[in-house]
Structures are given as structure tokens and as C-alpha cells.
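[audit] Reproducing an earlier prediction to check determinism. Same input, same settings, fresh worker. If the C-alpha cells differ from the archived copy the diff job will pick it up downstream; this log only records the rerun itself.
[audit] input (378 residues):
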Amino acid sequence: MPIVIDLFSGAGGLSLGASRAGFTVSTAIEIDKHAMSSHIFNFPQTVHIQKDITTLSGKDILSLSGLSKKDVVGVIGGPPCQGFSSIGHGNVNDIRNQLFVKFFEIVSDIKPTFFVAENVPGIMNKKYDEIRRTAFSKIKGYTLLDPFLVNASDYGAPTTRTRYFFIGYLKSKKISNISLSDFENSKVSNDEKTNVFQALEGLPANIKYSSKCSGLRFLAKEYIPTNHIQSNFFYQRVTDMIPDGIGNAEYVEKYKQIRIVNGCIATKHSDEVRKRYSKLKFNQQDKISKSKRLNPTGFCPTLRAGTGADKGSYQAVRPIHFKYNRVITPREAARLQGFPDWYKLPDTIWHSFRQIGNSVSPIVAEKILSVIYQKLIL
């Protein structure tokens, strides 16, 4: 299987999509120790490098990975987006913005057949023109496609999360020409789309806060292949499709045998908060918490990550369940982002939501990288 390296891997959304598309994720690089722990747990055969990527060159990464340039077919990654995000300060000089440039420097060093970078829509703001120009100037000999905007719901995930993708490839005998229409044609049909109500099917829902809750819960007994209401496309991706060597063997085996999942942890709400939530209609926002009630027949809005420890560890606003007067659980957030039930989440709410909010939807990643895989001349 062709090898890719995942820069800024986070918990592994892009890695999982790449694995399902047919690639081997040989190496993952991530500075956050908690996200790296999640990646290690779910990708036990990948080489993991927990370092500040600004201290690494492409040569360093190859050496630490035990690879040569000829081994690597693709470099993928989602450079940190906080500096570009429209909900942030929009500071052009935010030091994190330079990590987008660093991605392309590493591509230039390694010279893979293709690369895929993902980021928030804000990166296309005119004030970041110079950052993009600098980044693109690092790569020579690549055909760079026009950046294109992806709405996750168009590709089968139950969320309207929108992100720009930056894709380039070397003109060589190793890959056929790629066009934007190839990605446009990979969108799912209306029958393959899954709304919020369908996406959360089978998960334990009427759960209450408990300080002793482990987060482990059983899926509904009636949640079986012959009886599910989700699209087959979505059902397969959240219950099965486990690539070889991916997933923690013990956790996956328990999931298969007794249909148990983790991350079913309720947030503690006061009676006053629950009372306010009870009065909200679908898509209506609570004036104090700013949380919106999910519409069961619609898609989930973009899930936010919140801030890191260096920025105060603030929690992001979380959607309110369409039926129960509480915000969604980490496992529900994972479903809405397109992560499978057999993918183990962190044991805490904060780390789970942060990693899910920072991740690329595995469903979108699979769709995008499948187009590229099909263009490879193996």
C-alpha cells in the first residue's frame, strides 16, 4: 500500500480517511501529547513523532520514520487553523499561521507524488494572501489545484463543517492528471446523506451526569444492519470498515463482541440550565450559553475545539441534543463528525471535544484521498 506521512495529525481523522482510501499512514507528527495519545491508541502500527514540527526538516522526518524519499507517495495534514479562523482575533502575525508555510517546506524537502492540506475558510481572506503566496512558492514542479471549499455534508458526513483543501501533485509517470471535477463527482447522492437524527441512531441518549461515569455504554440492541435507518454509506463507516492494523485490538474486539462504546459522558447542568434548554426549539440558541438546539432533520453545525492550555483551556460551545435538555456527549460529537464507534475517544469530555473539533472528518478525508488513490499509477 502506498505510504503517506500525516503532519499535524491530531487524533487521526485525516489518517483514518487515508487508511480507508487505501494508503498506509507510516508516520504521524503531532505536538499535543493528548492528541498524540489518541493517535497512538488507534494507530498502533504507525511511527509517532511528538515534536514541534518547526524544529524538523523533511530529512529529519524521513530519518525518524525509517523512510527514504522514494518510499513516500503523499504528505497530508491540517496545519493549525486558529490564526486564520473567523471566530478568532484574525491576527496576520499569529505565529501559528507560519505552520501553513512549514507544511509546504516539508513537502518541498520530501518531494512526495502528491500533497493534501486542509484549513478553515478564513485562510482565503485577502489579508492572508502573502502567507499563501509564501507557502506556494516553496514547492517547485507541482501542479497546484485551485483551493476548493468542501462542505462535509456533501460528502456524506452529517455536519455542515466547511474547509478548504489545497492539493498538488508532481507531473510524473506515477500519477494521472487530477482536476477539481474529480472531487466534485465524488460527492454522495441525496440517498447517501445522513441527518442528525439518523446519525445518532443506536447511541445511548437518555443519560444523566454522574461523577463516577466511565463513559462506557452499550449500543441499542435493535441497532443492527437489517434495522438501521441511516444511509448504508454512513452506517458502514461508523460501525465497520476497520482497515488492517488500525484500532486498538482489545477495544475493537469488545466493540465487536458486546457492542460497547466509550465517550457517553453527560455534561453536568444545573436545573436552571436544563429548564432554559427545554424551552428551545430546533436551531434556536440559548442566550446565555450560546448553544443551539440541533435540528434532527438537518445537519450538525461545525463542532468547535475550544482553546488549548496555553490559551486558558476554554471549552467550545456545544450543541444541545434535539430531544434531551443537555449538550451532546463526546460519542455523539464523534458520530456527527463521522468517527466510527470502534474508534476510542479520550476518557475526558474536554480532550474528546477538543480533538474532535480540531479533526478532519474521516468521511471527508476518505472521499478526497480516494480520488487521489484512484489516480495513482501503481
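[audit] rerun output stored. Observation attached for the diff report: The longest strand covers residues 162-170.
[audit] end
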